[in-house]
Amino acid sequence: MKKSFLVIAALAGGFSLVKSHAQQNAASVELHTFHVQGNVYMIAGDGGNVSVQIGNDGVLMVDSGLTPNADKLLAEVRKLSKGTIRYLINTHVHPDHVGGNEKVFLAGSTITGGNVTGDIGDAGTGAAIIAHEGVLNRMSAPTGKESAFPPKAWPNDTYFTKEKKLFFNGEAVQIMHPPAAHTDGDSMVFFRKSDVISAGDLYVTTSYPIVDLQRGGNIQGILDAINRMIDIMVPAEKQEAGTYVIPGHGRVADQADVVEYRDMVTIIRDRIADGVKKGQTLEQVKAAKPTLDYDGVYSKPGSFWSADQFIEAVYKNLSAKK
């Protein structure tokens, strides 16, 4: 089962945020679609991975990638299904995961109505965009200020509890909110019948965890979210296959992969915590190289999120608790 997934690390590349958007040549971008299992597919390329669930009820998407890639993303979705796009779930607010929201919204329609003919909020107009309320708060703007995102890209179906549930295309879909993790508005999506988790940037295979302190991120929250994934996952023979995770960036993973990542994050967190406890400065902690034995895998030259950035974020996070 893993043979096609090994290619994905190269295709799904590094972590992208606003800095890379202006530099992107959209014409040269290629998106690639992989069947994960059950009703669920992954679309990989530049930007965040996109999960797609298809069936008789229509199409459900998790995340929408970068804005310049939206038309190509919709073309890939149409190769999988001609059904109506009913739901788009956003795992968090970063532009490489919500950039295509407006076009996906306009390409779909809600369960209750027909074609896209009116303004936002009309019955049947546009897909339902589901996210934790923290995503809406950050995508919209305070009174008198201009939002970075157009209103039709904003979530129009938010939740504020620990989870939201759907039943779509013959399977239960659980949308779970881990508080204060990668950001303060994260969701992970569990397709129960297909046995696939769409993790957003709560789990990536291409870098150290991105702790977005400015948007409420927390290293312990990331570990709690990863542990929850591990609790949900059931491996198959010899700890391979079974439940799969679609990461925010990188290749599809099974439970053994996620456990290894969890252990790496825990070890580095504890090393930095020890330095904080001893009263070491950030420079002293960096000089001790707490990530050295993992840098070859998670901090490659030119990557968006370096080992130094990870150490600094964790140090600031742990120091703030004292």
Summarize the structure.
With 322 residues, the protein is α/β, with parallel strands linked by helices.
What does this structure look like?
With 322 residues, this protein is an alpha/beta fold. The protein is 30% helix and 19% strand. The chain has 11 helices and 12 strands. The radius of gyration is 19 Å and the shape is globular. The chain starts with 7 loop residues before the first helix and ends with a helix.
CATH superfamily: Ribonuclease Z/Hydroxyacylglutathione hydrolase-like
The spatial strand order of the largest sheet comes to 1-2-3-4-5-6-7
Distance between the termini: 46 Å
In the CATH hierarchy, what is the architecture at level 2?
Answer: 4-Layer Sandwich
CATH class: Alpha Beta
Strand content: 15-25%
What would you call the quaternary organization? single chain
Q: Which radius of gyration do the C-alpha atoms yield? A: 19 Å
List low-pLDDT spans: 1-24, 113-123
**Number of domains in the coordinates?**
1
Write out key terms for the chains shown.
about 325 residues; alpha/beta; Metallo-beta-lactamase, Chain A; 7-stranded mixed beta sheet; 5-stranded mixed beta sheet; about 30% helix
